[in-house]
Fold this sequence. Notes:
mainly alpha, 80% helix
Amino acid sequence: MGMIAAPTATSAPRLFWSQFQRELVSVVRSKEEALNPLLFLFLAISLFALGAGGDPEVLQNIAPAIIWVLVLLANMMSLEGLFRRDYEDGTLEQLILLAQPGFVPVLAKIAAQWCVSGLAMTLLAPIAGLILFLPSTVLPTLMITLLLGTPALSLLGAVGAALTVGLRRGGVLLAILVLPLYVPVLIFGSSAVIQHMDGIGTQAQIYWLMAITMISITLAPFLVHAALKISVEQ
């Protein structure tokens, strides 16, 4: 995957869009990167439904937690290869050392990863909810919380992926680094759906998800860029 040849020849928006398009084309060429997390999500949801004996009442009560935990794990699956392919073929070094400003292509890569993971899972969430017998009136809240929370998962997870990109077996370390950061998103996302089911307002949880995502957008690209520079220079 080619990178920017001249660091000063491209404006930030153009650099972002160019890198974003390259990432989406790369995903299309290797469809398993996008499909594996989605397959994992629905296979795991089906197993939960079978394990509960198909009892609608039981599944309905635990459905928000199940969906959010599985979305979290599925998103983490797609993070391990976020930078690894570029690291192995040398293009990551070009991306980090040549592109100016350096955080822009990093943000583009994370945005592309979110589109094929977090956004895709958000759009498919109603199907997951119906499998677990969630009331149809709750599905919009589920989608809103996923739409607001999954960008934070991708941004925070990218920090862990950048720190472990140079390790051959960094999957376990990635999980150790990332999972604690995911806990607030998990708590606010699942509790918003549960409170909607109980007839309680969800504004506080939604505002917290928005705040976490905004903070992540502000800080994560710079942290990822710094972590990648360390990994490339080693």
